[in-house]
Amino acid sequence: MKTSSKEIAYQDAPALFDELRRQGKRVVQCHGTFDLLHPGHTVHFEEAKALGDVLVVTVTDEEHVNKGPGRPLFSDQLRVRSLAALACVDYVVLIPFPAAVEAIECVKPSVYCKGKEYAQDTVDVTGNIVNDRKAVEHFGGKMAYVGSVVFSSTRLLNQHFDAYAPQVKSFCKEVASECDKEHFRRAVESFSDKRVLIIGDTIFDRYSTVNVQGLTSKNRILSGRFLGEETQAGGTLAVFRHIREFTENVKLVSLVGTEAWVEDEISRYVHPNEDEIVRIPEFTTVVKQRFVEPLPTGKELSKLFSVNYIDEAHPGGDVQRYLIERIGQFIADVDLVLVMDFGHGVMGPDVRSFVQEKAPFLSLNCQTNANNHGFNLINRQYHRADSFSLDETEMKLAVGRKAMDFSAELQHLRKAFGAQYAWLTRGGTETLGEREGEESIQCPPFEVNIIDTIGAGDAFCSVASLAACSGLPIKTATFMGQLAGAEAVRYVGNSLNVKKSRFLKGSEAMLSV
Questions:
Q1: Cβ proximity of 141 and 109 under 8 Å
Q2: Fewer CB atoms inside 10 A, N or C side of the chain?
Q3: What pLDDT, in 10s, does the model give residues 464-483?
Q4: CB-facing half-sphere around the CA of 204: CA atoms within 13 A
Q5: Are the C-beta atoms of residues 54 and 28 closer than 8 Å to each other?
Q6: Does one domain contain both 208 and 156?
Q7: How many independent structural domains does the chain possess?
Q8: Which domain holds residue 45?
């Protein structure tokens, strides 16, 4: 709700600022999250205002804030209202984009101000400052670096507010003690050298949104009015998108049918020189359709029921041999082989054996779902991995018991596989991590504001696998996986992938506790 004439809607802002320029006004712009206003911000704004006639402050909306789990602490309305209350600020605009370029295009400032700490491009872990400068100069403006008093909102929030649960703070401090922000950044940047082969099932997640109207009068079944639907690239395609953020050296081997719509979806994400997906007419491309209610603000997505489009019989021997031939072209020339086995036909017995024998570093995720419950157990289908991750249900099925010492069983399974790394993700309870030669660790959940858990385990596995292949300490590797999973639960399904820039900004915030 608008509380001040200074608050301008994003769609109305360009016309207003065009008019100010026609009047000869010199427009100055500051941009950021401004989650916690402090004296440093006041000085920053006052010094910026002195460079022109009108000061516009643009604010990243909460959906696109990349400060890590739990941020922003304050809502869009409160952050905008607080800025509008400052005498030196003339206008405030909420920006529905993650980076500043769209904000700059909206305002077209004569002067765009950043803090003095950004005078060196390398300070910005996202690398966006270069694009910001290009956008400013494109519209005839210039950059200025202001702020004689410097504070960090993130550090102040971490030190004086309960932005994170005590156990999360404690874990982050432990990670920071062995891997500071600069070392962490270098480790993530080093992922770009990894050559990765992803093998497994391609799944398309279709979210069909309905407005539940109630029960029908005759048959007493649930009735809903169709509102719309979205198809998302899941399974190995989701993992490919995550990995592709960190390294360009990726190949994808999977299996789909020849339905016309499938090619359009694949081409959106996979470049032809990365695409080693096998197409066969007799195979039905896997689609998992979930009927959901409209997403309520600040609450988890409500799913009603699911319909799976999956062949009952798995592909025959000819297809398996063709997959092995395709995999064999690349497997010796990569650093990491990441297998995502959803039990939908790609990873047959012969393919599993070949990959386990040939992979230089094998990271494994063997999933249980409604279509394969009890039949796709990691310790029945595989005998070797260098790293693996599984969830609580998958662990219980593998062990054959409901009650257990999860840490002890994870260690036992790691040793049985001869693995260097092993993880057990237990949702909102904990994530357990194991590495040969290190003590077992327990990592608390980072994110409590959950939208949808679909795809979170895949995001965890993707980034944790890169960390394992790089030989990182178990705490650091687990932190990386957990941070990726925490980002994934903040959006619906696989609608977005983990972004390297958001990942680095989030890690910077959490390692500053």
A1: yes
A2: N
A3: 999 999 999 999 999 999 99
A4: 22
A5: yes
A6: no
A7: 2
A8: 7-160
